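Entry for the shared binder. Reason: the reviewer on the internal report wants the predicted structure included alongside the sequence.
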Amino acid sequence: MTAEIVVAGERPQALATALSQLDAAAGRLHLDEGIHQMLRHCKRELVVHFPVQMDDGTTRVFEGFRVQHNLSRGPAKGGLRYHLNVCLDEVRALAMWMTWKSAVVNLPYGGAKGGVVVEPRSLSETELENLTRRYATEISIIIGPDEDIPAPDMGTDGRIMAWIMDTISMHRGHTVTGVVTGKPVSVGGTLGRAEATGRGLQYVVEEVAKQFGVTLEGATVAVQGFGNVGSVAALLLTRAGAKVVAVSDSSSGLYNGRGLGIEALTALAGDHAPMARASGGDHISNEELLALPVDFLIPSALEGQLTGENAAAVQARYVVEGANGPTTPDADAVFGERGITVIPDILANAGGVIVSYFEWVQDLQAYFWEEGEVNERLHRVITRAYKDVARMAEEQSVTMREAAMLLGVSRVVEATKIRGIYP
């Protein structure tokens, strides 16, 4: 029997971006240096290496992570990512962003994130289940409905969440639905969760349009990353009257100035077909998509897509971040100089964590809501958060990202100070 070790790659930029954003907020808030240092460091980091038996009888050893950044406002909340480029620094950054995101939309959560270094599409269903159940067992020492509640992220889905829930339930000896969110409805999931992040983006775009006097009917949109978040946002914005002229995945982009057939492209994505095989427009690169002259650019792929090198080419009036950390500080500076408004990730893509919170509440109560109620509550929470951030941006004469960071960090600091430092 042979063993192959799969370990993490290097993605230091995300953590550098997250720390830079925190440091800027700390300076504006005149934070005590001790509190500042607490927030710069993650509270708890678990690194695991675990074997998985493959279909051919060999054993592969995988590397995984679960990081909890801050628990001052409540149990940790954050997704699980299955991707070859997952690394500890990336997970630290994502956990930190989850802390601010939960605080900006005023949920009683801290921030966490996790992941496994793996290409999930290379595994059979049996191998994927075995990997998931073993990883869940390894991190079971720090997750739970009162401690840390994982959710889907890149490379994971409701099926994987169900396997984790079942694994933890087997360990505890009873069903623990609230240990994860993003589950299928049949095992304690909530209606509206699959579309939540994309629907939240739609609501945020509508608020931007109201604030800046943009007519959404006919407004042009480009979406980088046509996965669950980007495809749902594109579909809902099309139904709201906007014109989605470009979308992309990792293989290619597609552009049609008259508007794309998003329904057909969504069906294609649902069949896991690459955008390179799509028709209905001209094939373009991701870089070309980012530079299109559109009203709204929605980067919904990986972090670090908009940088100091390509920010000058961006022609969108508004950048609404569907991904976590898609814009580097250098790019933010360029956008500020050019008058491009950026709606930050910790506000724009918070629909997922908001509806995850709803799912968790429903699991704890064993009482479930209708889909219309879920969507209405999501609309109320995310639009209230948008108005809070917009108000702070105006009062402090800062960008929307700076305002969101000031709001999120100040709420975490307030909770930290009220609770005190346990000796």
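Summary line for the report: The radius of gyration is 21 Å.
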